[in-house]
Design a protein that fits this description.
The protein is an alpha/beta fold. Helix content is 18%, strand content 22%.
Length: 310
């Protein structure tokens, strides 16, 4: 039987991620507030917003990398404060610090994704090696398995990150700008990888400013501004430039998975929208040390409060 939520609403059993009036930040500083958001199996949801809109803070909150300051947050039906199965969330960071800092092969990096399923000193099993090989095959890097990862291009390294996340057999992939900063050839390769994942029914939450590479696989779009969600609706509401089009459906309505677009107004303030100018935006400076974002071996769940959204 599902537990009741504040306000009397019960969690649906098919909600992978369920946020109700959720707030995240750092110590006593709230950056993201009043967020209502759900993610269901098989959905591919793009999270859009300008620099400082709160995208990174929201994602880091889901990963346990900052402070949950209010509201209800459940992951796979478990309250965030009690959630321990971090391997169910596969995180693919934007930044990577490989060249000159990590001496490892592609296979060794991807093998790090299996660590949550192994003992502390365990050697990779036959099953581990099979999963590693399958993950590399899926991202189109099986032929580079023995290569030094520092020899790869930025786009290929991004695919290594995806393979590492897949090796952990997550239920959902959370990706930060997977197609940003790579050349056209690698962008197309990444598009193909994401399309294959979508065909397999992989659930994805993608922080991005580039909608075009994802347009064919997106099921929903969520926009943020000022630390709040301003739109949650079907990807069909995006125009060619990536702007949300059409009339809004009443304020305060949750979701968007029902096929309707929703405008989220600030509590006690005017409703507002987010506009995207097509330029590269992110949530300020990203510092991925201490997380799994640098292709090291640290698993999500280690906090790093040195940097956060403006």
């Amino acid at each position: 039987m599902t537990a009741p939520h504040p306000g009397g609403r019960q969690a649906r059993p098919d909600e992978i991620i369920a946020l109700r009036s959720a707030s995240f930040g750092y110590a006593d500083r709230t950056v993201v507030s009043g967020v209502d958001l759900t993610l269901h199996p098989g959905e591919v949801v793009a999270l859009l917003g300008a620099n400082g809109s709160g995208k990174s803070t929201l994602v880091k909150g889901l990963l346990g990398l900052n402070d949950h300051l209010g509201g209800s947050v459940e992951l796979f039906g478990t309250p965030l404060r009690r959630f321990r199965r971090r391997s169910l969330l596969g995180y693919v960071p934007q930044r990577h610090t490989l060249s000159g800092t990590v001496a490892a092969t592609v296979t060794e990096i991807v093998a790090a994704g299996r660590l949550p399923h192994q003992g502390l000193l365990a050697r990779p099993s036959r099953e581990d090696r099979r999963i590693i090989g399958e993950s590399l095959e899926l991202v189109g890097l099986a032929d580079r398995a023995r290569d030094d990862v520092a020899e790869l291009s930025g786009g290929q390294q991004r695919r290594v990150l995806i393979a590492r996340a897949l090796a952990g057999r997550p239920e959902v992939l959370v990706m930060d700008e997977p197609t940003a900063g790579v050349d056209l050839g690698n962008q197309r390769a990444l598009e193909a990888v994401l399309a294959r994942l979508a065909e397999r029914g992989t659930t994805m939450l993608v922080v991005t400013h580039e909608v075009a590479p994802l347009r064919s696989i997106l099921t929903r779009v969520v926009t943020m501004s000022g630390g709040r969600i301003t739109f949650d609706g079907p990807a069909s509401r995006l125009d060619v430039a990536g702007d949300v089009t059409g009339d809004w459906v009443g304020p305060g309505a949750r979701g968007g998975h029902d096929g309707h677009a929703h405008r989220h107004g600030q509590r006690g303030g005017p409703e507002h929208t987010t506009h995207h100018d097509g330029h590269h935006h992110d949530d300020g400076r990203h510092d991925d040390a201490g997380t799994s974002t640098s292709l090291g071996l640290t698993h999500p769940g280690t906090r790093d409060r040195r940097t956060h959204d403006a």
